[in-house]
Write a structure and sequence with these properties.
The chain has 4 domains: 46 residues, no CATH class; 127 residues, no CATH class; 97 residues, Sandwich (Jelly Rolls); 122 residues, Jelly Rolls (Sandwich), CATH 2.60.120. It contains 2 helices and 31 strands. The strands form 8 sheets. It has a 6-stranded mixed β-sheet with strand order 2-7-8-9-4-3, with no helix packed on it. The protein has a 5-stranded mixed β-sheet with strand order 23-25-27-30-31. Strands 1-10-11-12 form a 4-stranded mixed β-sheet, with no helix packed on it.
């Protein structure tokens, strides 16, 4: 921690004129004094900085404290912040029950359990041995080792003590290393989202396949040649917060299911036929879960006099239809009965499927049905088109409230828009 300026003596500068020689010595002496003042905090507005190897994260084991030492009662090595200490390591002791026993120490005797055993002893370090070393604002920087306090900076928060082992000496955390949280990564000083990195491989149309996050966090789905399924694996060592985004830019007449490959298997999301869209999935440490999605369905755009489209006219014609409460049972919905359906407020008793009939109630092209789910039961509710294609239009995830608007094109029902409350 110390810095030294080499001060020449008169013998070394004997050939200099006396006045010049004395000026050189005086200048070097003053420079050394300035360095010492900066290191000890004697210059107004500065604080001394002490470097230590470790800082305690809890009180030391039972022991005996004096003004200058701390001796552990039991024999054996001393562990500080998860590290077995060794001889001469410098320790910031900051968590003693009696705060007067805190301070800057070094391991003067490394404990040992061998033979009769040796007790570990800490002695106040040379730069922490007198009351002048403990000034308010004094800074202590730790090394990279330790579980709780690696590479952090502590500041003395108490007044200067009048005597060691008498007055309290306390420290507070003022700076710590920056680490990346869940779903983030740290590159130098730049924090970024894992989802925004890694180009991600395109998915292939192979029916059922499995992907891992190590290969990229953005996956693109090609035009499907069959109904497919994608399993989100736990290979690639995903960590809690990691995300994968799957996009579908095609509108092929096949569905595509995304399945959780973690501890709790299940369908997380189904891309409907004939729509493009995306879905974002996040890992919680054990399982993948649906976090967000968006779809762009294909709907009828036939114009009708006085309306933007046939759908607008029919929506206006039927928007005042009665609201119907759905029961917890497999159901075929009839557009003639009402255009707004509400799932019951009771938890679903099992995963359910709702079939939208293309014939019951004589739906017309442009007719819409809105289905809402008000509960957050631990079961999924799937909406299925009852037309010739019989695809899955949407799966409302378990434990989420949701809403789906489906529209009839004259032969089949299509998902027009949907929303899920992911905060629920």
């Amino acid at each position: 921690m110390s810095s030294t300026v080499a001060v020449p003596n008169y013998a070394q500068i004997a050939n200099y004129p006396p006045a010049q020689a004395k000026a050189i010595v005086d200048l070097a002496t003053q420079a050394q004094a300035d360095i010492n003042a900066l290191q000890t905090g004697a210059v107004p507005g500065t604080s001394p900085v002490h470097n230590v190897d470790l800082a305690t994260a809890a009180a030391l084991p039972a022991g005996t404290a004096t003004a200058t030492t701390f001796t552990v009662t039991a024999t054996g090595t001393l562990t500080v912040d998860g590290v077995v200490t060794t001889l001469n390591q410098r320790i910031l002791v900051k968590d003693q029950v009696a705060a007067a026993d805190n301070g800057i120490f070094y391991v003067s005797t490394a404990g040992s359990a061998a033979g009769p055993g040796v007790k570990a002893v800490l002695t106040r370090a040379p730069d922490g041995a007198v009351i002048g070393d403990y000034q308010p604002g004094t800074l202590v920087a730790t090394g990279p080792a330790g579980t709780a306090n690696p590479s952090v900076l502590f500041e003395q928060t108490t007044a200067a003590p009048t005597a060691l082992h008498v007055d309290a000496i306390s420290y507070g955390l003022v700076a710590t290393a920056i680490t990346a949280g869940a779903g983030l990564k740290l590159t130098g000083s730049v924090m970024s989202s894992k989802t925004a990195t890694a180009a991600g491989a395109n998915l292939t149309d192979t029916g059922t396949q499995s992907i891992d996050i190590a290969g990229g966090s953005w996956r693109k789905l090609p035009t499907l040649g069959q109904n497919g399924a994608l399993t989100l694996a736990t290979t690639g060592s995903p960590v809690a917060g990691d995300k994968i985004k799957v996009t579908r830019s095609s509108t092929s007449a096949f569905t595509y299911a995304v399945i959780n490959g973690g501890g709790g298997a299940g369908t997380l999301f189904t891309f409907p036929q004939s729509v493009s869209g995306f879905a974002v999935f996040q890992f919680d440490g054990t399982n993948w879960a649906l976090q967000d999605f968006g779809i762009l369905p294909v709907v009828a755009t036939t114009t009708v006099a006085g309306y933007q489209s046939a759908a607008d006219k029919l929506f206006q014609d039927r928007q005042h239809s009665a609201t119907v409460a759905l029961t917890d049972a497999p159901t075929t919905l009839d557009v003639a009965t009402g255009t707004w359906y509400t799932m019951p407020a009771a938890t679903l008793g099992a995963d359910r499927a709702m079939t939208l009939s293309p014939t019951v109630g004589t739906p017309l092209a442009g007719d819409q049905i809105t289905i809402t789910r008000l509960d957050a039961g631990a079961h999924a509710m799937t909406i299925v088109d009852g037309g010739p294609g019989t695809p899955t239009l949407m799966t409302m995830p378990n434990s989420k409230t949701a809403c789906a608007v489906c529209q009839f094109d004259g032969a089949n029902w299509k998902l027009r828009t949907a929303a899920v409350d992911f905060a629920a």
